[in-house]
């Protein structure tokens, strides 16, 4: 697990690349058949940190080179493929983004939001097809216009810029639902115990009871009230925590091909802690 430490909180950090990298963006990622050596993991960590620093300095071309080098040295750090996919998508290179996402889906077996990533791949492929159709239509129109001497030349329309928004996680709502269930159950347990206590107090004025069964029922009721109260407290904390998680902490990022506005996210690693710019999907 140590080899994941440097990457765990940096999995969603992105490093947009310059257009000069478009030519090698479809280069196959290194295959992974063996565990990296300690020296390779250390070198990958260094490349990861250098890429984060280059990104914060605005040197996006160098940053992407570092990220690819980090994955080449530690091919088990598959979260780097998400970094690359987000970077290529922000750049407008949807083909490279799809290639990185498909590689991640193939190599990372335990993915909690696999269906979301698969839908993202599908959406990107539909956008690629739409852009190709628009380009072909524009080229046909340009050819027809150039072959007609009397027609006026007009530049082909630019394809629309597509905006992608990463959806929020459903996990906070699961926490809210679980907290609500615990609260309701706790309220029922508390009410049942309260009823037992009231019945015992009615049967034993001034808490003077001669019937052992009534005493046991009253004591049982008080214990039940304590348990129910604790469950209510835990449930309410869960509901509040889930709502805070969803509305305050879980903020999706919005990106376009022309947008370069980064988000600020934490990045951690052995001997390194700080803030790095990135996006999420």
Structure description:
This protein is mainly alpha-helical. The protein has two domains: 150 residues, Serine Threonine Protein Phosphatase 5, Tetratricopeptide repeat, CATH 1.25.40; 79 residues. 59% of the residues lie in helices and 7% in strands. The protein is built from seven helices and four strands. It has a two-stranded antiparallel ribbon. Helix 1 runs antiparallel to helix 2, helix 2 runs antiparallel to helix 3 and helix 4 packs antiparallel against helix 5. The chain is elongated. The relative contact order is 0.14. The N terminus and C terminus are likely disordered.
Keywords:
single chain, disordered C terminus, 7% strand, 7 helices, two-stranded antiparallel sheet, Serine Threonine Protein Phosphatase 5, Tetratricopeptide repeat, mainly alpha, 281 residues, disordered N terminus
Derived structural class: mainly alpha
Low-confidence stretches: 1-6, 8-24, 161-165, 253-281
The CATH topology assignment of the largest domain is Serine Threonine Protein Phosphatase 5, Tetratricopeptide repeat
Q: How many β-strands, per DSSP? A: 4
Number of helices, counting only DSSP H or I runs of 4 residues or more: 7
Widest sheet: strand order?
A: 1-2
Order of helices and strands: HHHHHEHHEEE
What proportion of the residues form beta strands (DSSP E)? 5-15%
Number of domains: 2
The CATH architecture term of the largest domain is Alpha Horseshoe
Please state the overall shape, judged from the principal axes of the Cα atoms: elongated
**What is the residue-averaged pLDDT?**
74
- Tell me the name of the CATH homologous superfamily of the largest domain: Tetratricopeptide repeat domain
Characterize the biggest β-sheet: 2 strands, antiparallel
CATH class identity of the largest domain? Mainly Alpha
> What integer value in Å does the Rg equal?
29 Å
Task: Give the proportion of residues in helices.
Answer: 55-70%
Terminal CA distance reads: 25 Å
């Amino acid at each position: 697990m140590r080899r994941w430490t440097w990457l765990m909180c940096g999995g969603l950090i992105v490093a947009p690349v310059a257009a000069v990298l478009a030519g090698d963006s479809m280069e196959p990622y290194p295959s992974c058949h063996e565990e990296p050596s300690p020296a390779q993991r250390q070198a990958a960590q260094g490349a990861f940190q250098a890429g984060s620093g280059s990104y914060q300095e605005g040197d996006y071309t160098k940053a992407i080179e570092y990220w690819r080098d980090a994955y080449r040295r530690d091919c088990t750090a598959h979260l780097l493929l998400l970094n690359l996919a987000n970077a290529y998508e922000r750049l407008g290179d949807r083909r490279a983004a799809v290639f990185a996402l498909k590689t991640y889906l193939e190599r990372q077996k335990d993915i909690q939001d696999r269906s979301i990533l698969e839908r993202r791949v599908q959406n990107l492929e539909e956008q690629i097809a739409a852009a190709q159709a628009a380009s072909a239509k524009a080229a046909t129109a340009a050819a027809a216009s150039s072959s007609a001497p009397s027609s006026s030349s007009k530049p082909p329309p630019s394809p629309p810029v597509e905006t992608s928004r990463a959806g929020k996680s459903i996990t906070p709502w699961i926490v809210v639902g679980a907290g609500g269930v615990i609260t309701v159950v706790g309220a029922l347990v508390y009410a049942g115990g309260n009823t037992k206590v009231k019945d015992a107090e009615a049967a034993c004025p001034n808490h003077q009871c001669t019937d052992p069964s009534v005493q046991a029922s009253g004591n049982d009721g008080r214990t039940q009230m304590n348990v129910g109260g604790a469950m209510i407290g835990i449930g309410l904390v869960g509901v509040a925590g889930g709502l805070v998680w969803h509305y305050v902490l879980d903020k999706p990022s919005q990106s376009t091909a022309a947008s370069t506005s980064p988000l600020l996210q934490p990045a951690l690693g052995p001997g390194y802690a700080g803030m790095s710019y990135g996006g999420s999907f």
